[in-house]
Amino acid sequence: MKVIRGTIVSEGEGGVYGERMLNGCRVWDPHRSKFPAAILNGAPLDLSSDMRVLYLGAANGTTVSHVADYVETVYAVEFAPRPMQDLIEVARRRLNLVPIMGDANRPEVYGCFVEAVDMIYQDVAQPNQADILRKNLPFLKKGGIAILMLKARSVDVRRPSEEIAEETRMSLREMGLTITWSGTLDPFHKDHTCMLCVKEA
How far is 181 from 12, CA to CA, in rounded Å? Predict the structure, then answer.
């Protein structure tokens, strides 16, 4: 990851969501994107130019655009029509970004468009967040990285966030994933926990 004066940035064309520029690079705002928030909170995350990424819950393309600045290919899955329009516009300026309109709960529908990937980034705030990741694990290479951005309040607003997080960690282990790091995204994103996992070889 590229850091300029303590600020995480990516090299790419600006103007995606009004992001600031620093020395010709795009500032990756941790208040707008969970990826840099996790890094600032200690997650050992990195991206490289030879990586292929499956991004679930691409929304308007804020985080996806930064990821695309770093990696070889991003397959960006989004279900809602309005954010998808913005995502397509982002993809016009990033030819390595493949926008896919689809339901992350149904990977069999878009599977024909996706190659084996080195990383899955799951940011779909639904009650079955861990199960969505499980359904998409066949795309992930052995030894690949799975990132779950867990939004506890989307699972159950009545239960403590840490209780939901621990339950989710147990589910990930049952999927054959090894959790290498887990931590909250406070103060950048409330009630969010990042779980960094590796698919066992």
Answer: 29
Taking the C-alpha atoms of residue 2 and residue 14, their distance in angstroms, rounded to an integer, is 16
123 a known binding residue? yes
Tell whether 152 is in a known binding site: no
155 is an annotated ligand-binding site residue:
no
> Is there a binding annotation on residue 122?
no
CATH number at 62 reads 3.40.50.150
Rg of the chain, C-alpha, whole Å: 16
For 129-144, what is each residue's pLDDT tens digit? 999 999 999 999 999 9
Q: Is residue 52 part of a domain?
A: yes
Domains held by the chain: number: 1
Q: Supply the pTM of this predicted model.
A: 0.95
193 among the known binding-site residues?
Answer: no
